[in-house]
Amino acid sequence: MDKLEKYRQFIKNILTEHAASSTTTDTVKAELIFDHEHDHYQLNYVGWQRDKRVFGPVMHFDIEDGKIWIQYNGTEDSVAEKLVAMGVPPSDIVIGFHSSFKRQFTPYAVS
């Protein structure tokens, strides 16, 4: 399996595991979105809680230029650490929700 396919699988595993462990109801669902053509991967919550609309991202990853970009992480999990534990080098992980200035102070890639 080449690097790109491994990264896709790692991201899908993280999102699927989190969706499976999420507390959902009959009216609020965890929705997995896997776009292999453009390498965008998301977990969203979608539905209704009584008369209030529930819609929002939980996690969002992209793969760009051979690197995994963590665009959003609305959980307490350190998904960057999970990726490293799966074998992704820190130099292939970008914390996309931090500015490039702030990224230089992390152990991960700046871009």
Automatic annotation (TrEMBL):
Protein name according to UniProt: XisI protein
